[in-house]
Amino acid sequence: MPAPQEFLNYIDANANSFIQRLSDAVAIPSISGDWAHRNDVLAMADWLNGQLQQLGVETQLSDLGRHSMDGHDLPLPPAILGRIGNDANKKTVLIYGHFDVQPANKSDGWDTEPFTLVIDEKTGRLIGRGSSDDKGPILGWLNVLQYHHENKVPLPVNLVFCFEGMEESGSEGLDELVERESKKGGYFDGVDCVCISDNYWLNTRTPALTYGLRGLSYYKVTVSGPARDLHSGVFGRTVHEPMTDLIALLNTLVGPDGNILVPGVDEMVPPADEEEKAIYAKLDYSISDIEQSAGAAIALSSDKVAVLMGRMREPSLSIHGIEGAFSGAGAKTVIPAKVSGKFSIRLVPPQTPALVDPLVIEHLEKEFAKLNTKNTLKIENLHGGKPWVADHRHWNYEAAKRATRAVYNQDPDLTREGGSIPVTLTFAESLGVNVCLLPMGRGDDGAHSTNEKLDRSNFIEGSKLLGSYLYEIADIAK
Ligand SMILES: C[C@H](N)C(=O)N[C@@H](Cc1c[nH]cn1)C(=O)O
Ligand SMILES: [Zn+2]
Ligand SMILES: [Zn+2]
């Protein structure tokens, strides 16, 4: 059963106020990875909790305890649990999303202030940190709720919400909560399926449903030696320099062709057969899509299937940054005393952090020993998560396919995502139900990057999509 026409009309008629609400959400810089912004993440939890309550959702804030970040003891942001509807004759759908965002500073290269939503009337872009990842999609659910609440129209399904504020920083504390609440009598007991809107279409024109995510293992490698930063004119070529050792170490991790040089990591993944390659060949995607979203002609291959497999079914290793290194303007002639390289590996089945971590540690220690340095090495695993793949023939996906056809008049691409949402597998395993990823944004949204945006049409049509999906679930469940 398609969503009622009044619902679709309501979303169109209220588009401007929905965008205003997105602007209010973007204005809260809820950066989970920066201890100095922890109060903003807490404020964002309060704001979202208030919005849900105003729209008729019964909520509770679930305390996830405390943790330490960069030497600061901090409260973890609470998870927001919500429920609306308790009709035994209806399916119960669990909605997950995250209200924290990646860091952003104008000086990173943004054209506008990252935490002020800018509406570009010419392009229809809504530009601001979190617009696509993941405040826009969360607010899409609020838009759906608002129609039903204001018009006193019962929802076609029961909804249970789980919104967290630490997704961009390893979802600390959430797995335990999900496992506990999935047990008999727990908050999530009775959930029939899960829907997550926290990723992107493959391109800028074809809606997608996503049935796989890569896992992640995130490492911090610290090399230290001198008791303090040193003058390079006085100490250069007289001491072992931590930065030199670290760069040598980082250089042993990945080749310029993307191949992972840590022995055993790439080898763990079986090669794709012709049948699997045909799946990638069929997707609506071209090299210009990746180059358009990357903003430069820098694809690793001109073969579309090779590029798609690199993102969806192969592991990747990325070097993210060096803490403690000189990075300011000017020409400071320092030898940094302690530097930490940060890198992560995106994992695919059958890889897990437990299988890959020992290989990485053994490799780093072996390569460090080859340097014959007197500096010291420390290896830390900051966070991780397993990869996930779902059955896209399940009725949950059928409902999402029907909703996509109803709203976009198009069949969705079936994709596996290169990013990670570690709690996805926890939901699937703890609840024993199907999880469907129903993205709102486009492949060129620039999530985690500068000038992140969500197209107005994706926000509005995406809100219709989320509502339509619920009606299709109710229809299939009859
Ligand atoms: C796909 C999702 N929107 C996302 O961005 N996930 C992050 C999760 C993460 C893990 N460590 C830090 N962030 C990602 O894939 O990077
Ligand atoms: Zn996200
Ligand atoms: Zn993200």
TrEMBL record:
InterPro entries cross-referenced by the UniProt entry: ArgE/DapE_CS (IPR001261), CNDP/DUG1 (IPR017153), Cyt/Met_Dipeptidase (IPR051458), Peptidase_M20 (IPR002933), Peptidase_M20_dimer (IPR011650)
Protein residues bound to substrate: 198, 231, 333, 346, 420, 448
Textual note on the cofactor: Binds 2 manganese ions per subunit.
Signal peptide region: none
Top-level taxonomic group: Eukaryota
One biological process term in Gene Ontology: proteolysis
Residues flagged as site, Important for catalytic activity: 231
Positions annotated to bind Mn(2+) 1: 133, 168, 448
Keyword Zinc-finger set for record: no
Cofactor(s) for this UniProt protein: Mn(2+)
One Pfam family recorded for the sequence: Peptidase_M20
Stated name of the protein: Peptidase M20 dimerisation domain-containing protein
Organism: Panaeolus cyanescens
Biological classification of the source: Eukaryota, Fungi, Dikarya, Basidiomycota, Agaricomycotina
